[in-house]
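Q: My labmate handed me this sequence with no annotations at all. I'd like to see what the chain might look like in three dimensions before we decide whether it's worth expressing. Could you predict it?
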Amino acid sequence: MDKRVWHQRSDVSLVVRTDFAHLQEWVEIQAAIVEPQTEEGFTAFVEFVDDRAYEGITLSQLLELVPADSDHGVAFLVDAKALTHPDMPILVVNLYDYVEGLTDQGKGPQYGTTFRVVPSEMWSVQNNLTISNMDWEEFVDNTDGDGVFRGFE
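A: Here is what I predict for the chain of 153 residues:
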């Protein structure tokens, strides 16, 4: 697997395809992710990773692949659930958890935790977490009972 993909701009989040059985749904979810979602034209700033090397990758495998010097705070996985569920819930992975005084900075207790997000709200998650405008917990605390963030009420 090419680790150079992790050394791109940190304000652009990676959307990694892990399921290759649903091509049409992959095309549809990409379009849904990049479609502007607000009157102001807010959209998620993402780079799509469509590489069979990531096929079937698990969360723990992904975390092992992220280079220590990566500046990405979050990544998105498009797995079979995202491609087959009517709401297209994309898995959001926390890649940076700052804790004051922690020796292994960025690897706090929230590192590697996840929730899901519908494509129409991905801009909010990506934009706000990338610039540290909001905290991980603010999104997690606003997920529905099924663990999916569908926006703030």
